[in-house]
Amino acid sequence: MTLRQQHLWIAIVTTLGVWGLYVWQLIERVRVGDLKTTGFAGEMGGLFLFGLLLIGIAEGVLTLIARLLPHADTREGAAERKASLQASHISLMALIGMVTVVAAVLFVIGWIGQSATARLLSAATPANLLVLIANGLMGCVVVSELIRFSMTLALLRARR
Known about the structure:
Layout lengths: L2 H29 L8 H29 L9 H35 L1 H10 L2 H34 L1
Helix pairs in contact: 1-2, 1-5, 3-5
């Protein structure tokens, strides 16, 4: 396995682990009714920053370990660059699609009007609804990155 493939696997595992735990905490807090509390936004913001820190540390340490292990060739060839570029294009199209869906859902909620927004506001404070929307958008970015990592791996294997 090349260093590039090792790094992609590290990115997939750490992304799934850290953001999986974050989403689990988000769902648990919504389930117990924290959307009506004023501390929800701050707690989720703190967890989000902690998640970013964990991703940075975990990927850094695991990549350092992967670099120290023996591997065949450290140079990135044309096949790796092409696979990465193609995966980035697929990831970008997926991100555009997901953000468009989120925007469409928000538009429809606004279009339906007072009845839909009144139900949402009875379940959560306005600030916490914004936190949920931000988490939805961030989820789109995380899924897009997972698509990029996975597609790069798949394209690298197809080229060998």
